Amino acid sequence: MNLNKRLKFANAATVIIPVIITALLVLAYLFIYSKVSNTNLSFDNYQRLNQITLELSRPESYLQKNPEIIEEKSFQSYLEERIAGLDGELVILKDERLVFSTRPFSKIEIAKVLGIGKMEQSKEPVILDRVSYTIQTVEVDLKNGSEGLVILLAPLEKGIAGFMGILILAGLSFGLSFTFMNIFISRQFSLTILKPLNNLQKAAAEISGGNLNYEIVEEGDEEIQELCRDLELMRIKLKNAVNEQLKLEDNRKVLISSISHDLKTPVTSIKGYVEGILDGVANSPEKTDRYLKTIYTKAQQVDEMIDDLLLYAKLDLNQIPFNFEKTEVEEYIKKCILESEPELDRHRIKIMLVNDLKGNHHVLLDQERMNRVIMNILDNSLKYMDKDQGEIRIFLRETKTSIIIEIRDNGIGIKEKDLPYIFDRFYRSDTARGEIKGSGLGLAIARQIIEGHGGKVWALTHGDQGTSIMISLSKS
């Protein structure tokens, strides 16, 4: 539920429900009390008493026009019948002398009624025979100068007393129900608002303490759920950022270690040959020339390693822009084969193209960068070739959306356990680390370039029968 709607609903329910409960209890009280005491508590009695008094008090009323009628039996009987419907009493006085009463009244009772009745229609009740009465009086001026007084008494315990009982019941029921609703709604708020907020506070404490695995669950009203969702996304991003930072730190350590390892061998060789020349070990022009050529070769190897490292770093940081152009796949691969054939022939390695494409197909390539990929893969095949007659086949296939380039050799192959790591920088299998020359970045650079083209690269092993490097590029 929306938090704004919940607040409005809670505020309305806090008042409306107690009012409904109070009304139902009052109606039940009226019904039960009326049935038990056979008394009408709808205030008809009290209204009828006021109505009778009003009728008698009006100047145009029959009593005011004929005041002497108070001494006539017919009028007295009429008033007696009217007041009997209220279970009340009637007293008629003439100059404070009792003329008529519905029951015997003592002089003290007459004086008490008269005293209260003359107090300008006082609302104070009078108690007669342990019964409380409310009093209404009507004064009339008789023709002989005498004063007439009609006193109407209605029992309070069956009229206003019932009203007071209703007020007390209504007050108590409203107060109790209002208190209960406040407690109930406060508890609901605690479950729907305070509990999720407490959980968020706990999650914030866990995350600030470094526990980024503490999951934030969506709960509560819509606004709180949105807050939980945003904080959970923030937690995930923060966790990924921390993990990425840790990964980069580990990679940095591996990079330093690998660079140190791979540079140490040629540098040590250079140092050794230089010391040989300085110490006079190279004591002939031919030997000195051989030492210098070896030093040059090792220095060139270091230079290539540094170039590969710089290229990889730039690719990793997206600092090298790609110059894409629409390229026909078969013609491009043929061009790459022609460039590499002389070097492969020198090592007795035969290269051939197997085209399974139907028709001409184009892809978007940065030809210079992709040429580096093909050369790196072919160079790896050359390094790991153990057959007297080496062979490299390039297969071209297609799917509905992509072109597949497979470069397969018949070299020593790759162990299954090494497959997931061969595209990592500086990775070499344990058996090849000390034997194979190179920067160890060839396949890592190839992966960076292919992914820069929006493609994918992976490897398949054929045991000791060779390796396949698979490249997938989207059709243009």
Record the SSE blueprint.
Layout: H1 3-37, H2 44-57, H3 62-65, H4 73-84, E1 89-94, E2 97-101, H5 107-117, E3 126-128, E4 131-141, E5 147-155, H6 160-208, H7 222-278, H8 285-316, E6 325-328, H9 329-346, E7 349-355, E8 362-365, H10 367-383, E9 390-398, E10 402-409, H11 442-452, E11 456-461, E12 467-474
Parallel strand pairs: 7-9
Antiparallel strand pairs: 1-2, 1-5, 3-4, 4-5, 6-8, 9-10, 10-12, 11-12
Brief write-up:
The protein is of the alpha+beta class and 476 residues long. The chain has eleven helices and twelve strands. The protein has three domains: 115 residues, 2-Layer Sandwich (Beta-Lactamase); 93 residues, Signal transduction histidine kinase, dimerisation/phosphotransfer (DHp) domain (Helix Hairpins, Orthogonal Bundle); 153 residues, Heat Shock Protein 90 (2-Layer Sandwich).
What features would you describe in this structure?
The structure is a single chain. With about 475 residues, the protein is of the alpha+beta class. It folds into 3 domains: about 120 residues, 2-Layer Sandwich (Beta-Lactamase), CATH 3.30.450; about 90 residues, Helix Hairpins (Orthogonal Bundle), CATH 1.10.287; about 150 residues, Heat Shock Protein 90, CATH 3.30.565.10. Helices cover about 55% and strands about 15% of the residues. A hairpin with a 5-residue loop joins strand 11 and strand 12. About 0% of the residues have low confidence.
